[in-house]
Amino acid sequence: MPEEDLVELKFRLYDGSDIGPFRYSPASTVAMLKERIVADWPKDKKIAPKEANDIKLINAGKILENNKTVGQCRVPFGDLPKAVITMHVVVQPSVTKAKTEKKVDEVPRKNFCSCSIL
Question: Would I find Membrane among this entry's keywords (predicted)?
Answer without folding.
Answer: yes
